Structure prediction request, 368 residues.
Amino acid sequence: MTQTLSGPHTLEVALGDRSYPIHIGPGLLREPGALAPWLAGRQVMIVTNETVAPLYLAQCRSALPADAEVRELVLPDGEATKNLAHVSRIWDALLEAGFNRRCTLVALGGGVIGDMVGFAAACYQRGVAFIQVPTTLLAQVDSSVGGKTGVNHPLGKNMIGAFWQPRAVLIDTDTLDTLPPRELSAGLAEVIKYGLIRDADFLAWLERSLPALRDLEPAALARAIQRSCALKAEIVAEDETEQGVRALLNLGHTFGHAIEAHQGYGNWLHGEAVGTGMLMAAELSARLGWLGEGDVLRVRTILRVAGLPLEAPAAMSPEDFLARMRLDKKNVDSRLRLVLLRALGDACVDDATPLETLQALLEQFPRG
Prediction:
């Protein structure tokens, strides 16, 4: 599944005739015509946000063929914009430009842009091509890969969406040079997740390498991104539409999505909420007898060193958590399904956690 190149690194998401590459490396956006191989036709719409546009929109445009018919749409930034109203702005722009079924959308930005553009592509004229160009660590290691697209609803995160795979993912690691520290920490939460669910050796490497990662050391970042994407690609190839093993990628997300929805989208970054959610999942796993206190301490320590919050919102009650968690997409027949840890590096989906055990965790978990 992996191929090492002299310079950039390339992975493949193996989905038969819908397989696509993930290209990872520095300066990829500065390569003329870098996006050309994955265009469906001449019509291209680059969608980005007000933060990313001044930094990388010109580079992205130069990565397209000179004869492409290019339009640009710059949306507001932030998780609060991840809704149907802003997806409608993408559809409006496509229709006003007269774009046809052979158009290609390019998602230039973080996870919010990627999810919205992918959903817009899935729906426009019943499905058109799109390319992911993620510019945040979280998007590079997680949301840009795997074809999950969609928007938030006031009652729940990512409740409206579709599975729609990109034609390619282009990860220019140089874009992380402009990433704020808080966003970097949020991305590290998803990197840590891969070690916790599937790769204990990678987790141990992360424990040693977090200072280098937070300092944006290129070799450490390259290894973290490559391994995260490789694990994500393997899991997606096994279970594209989350009928089984792909659910493991939601470690910490049931708790985290509840925090995001309760607090108002954007007040907690997605990775911050997931980081706290992973600690809650680890502590619940310990209460079930699967993890030892030393394991939980390791999880708490790595999240702390990554710069992530270790406490739930002060004003969020156990009832608030449970109300939001009952809307989680993994639930089946009204049974709450949680991703937990049988060991560090070995995750499972559990639907038999006693409610009183979960309630005790929610009551006793620190608030801040």
Observations:
- The first helix runs from residue 53 to 62.
